[in-house]
Amino acid sequence: MITRFAPSPTGPLHLGHAYSALLGHRMARAAGGQFLLRMEDTDLERSKPEWADLICTDLRWLGITWDGPVHSQAAQLDSYDAPLQRLEKMGLLYPCSCSRADIRAALSAPQEGVTHEVYPQLCKSRPMSDRKPGDALRLHLDKALDLLAGREVHFVETGAAHAGRHAIDPGQAHREIGDVVLSRKGENIVAYFLASALDDAAQDITHVVRGEDLFDFTAIQVILLSLLDLPIPIYHHHKLIRDENGKRLAKRDDARSLQTYRAAGASPEDIFNMLGLDQTV
Ligand code: GLU
After folding, report:
1. b/e map 128-159, b = 16+ CB within 10 Å
2. Distance in Å, CA 228 to ligand 1 centroid
3. Is pLDDT of 148 > 90?
4. Taking a C-beta distance cutoff of 8 angstroms, is the pair 35, 72 a contact?
5. Which contacts of 191-197 are long-range, i.e. CB under 8 A and separated by 24 or more positions?
6. Whole-prediction pTM value?
């Protein structure tokens, strides 16, 4: 078993991150496997080495050890070029110049049951030859699903809320995810969905342990991995840690950062208690 913790170093770790890291770490260690640490730092503006350092300090304080060096996505941006080019050659990308305002204006009504925006496909008919500097690149989901038609694309989930085998449902992928950005606007830098899935494959991750908020996006990562003939890991989406009002914790929620608890004299055992985890690291 190889699990990983893949934070974006754009702020301090809070209790929710601690839960995720501890769970992944414990699963790996219990199985005699490996636990890897990956900084998802492709957002070059918001990612800071200071946050990455603090993340390592917080994890060590919790008793977490990781195998091998910390993997930084920003340090190997080149590694994402070939897969992107392959998707382009397969005819699965199109350039997009839409701003947030363009997208909002085109989405006349809030999309029911969808917690994030689904791109309204304004640039869908643009060929790659029309790509302008600064355009984003989006996945042409229709064509991607056509290519995968007839193949048994599915993933296995072991988290309690969605445990079981999930076949990719094209209708649902359209409704809930849509034509996601694979290379970001302005910067020509790989975007989260692709970078994270590619690294899971490159690092031989067998079990992706992460919060339930990412469950809906798993389908797109499985689609990308399938298109590129890469292995699909097992997914384990765990419950989210919420505050007393039921709201899920966010990075900006400094009051619940591990650093704040540590400064106030809390011990790692106090954190385990707060998270309802037993006391073994
Ligand atoms: N980097 C993502 C985050 O910090 C997590 C990605 C993942 O675990 O797949 O929210």
Report:
1. eeebeeebbbbbbbebbbebbeeeebbbebeb
2. 21
3. yes
4. no
5. 191/42, 191/136, 192/40, 192/42, 193/217, 193/220, 193/221, 193/224, 194/80, 194/83, 194/84, 194/224, 195/40, 195/42, 195/73, 195/80, 196/6, 196/40, 196/221, 197/221, 197/224, 197/225, 197/230
6. 0.94
HEC sequence for 158-174? CCHHHCEEEECCHHHHH
Determine which of 191-205, 221-235, 266-280 has the lowest per-residue pLDDT on average: 266-280
Q: Is the CB of 26 under 6 A from ligand 1?
A: no
| Ligand 1 contact via 8 beta carbon (within 6 Å) | yes
Cα–ligand 1 centroid distance for 40 (angstroms) = 7
DSSP3 helix / strand / coil % (the chain, rounded to 5): 40, 15, 40
- Strands 181-183, 93-96: parallel, antiparallel or unpaired by DSSP? unpaired
Coil, strand, or helix at residue 136? strand
- Single-letter residue type at 132: K
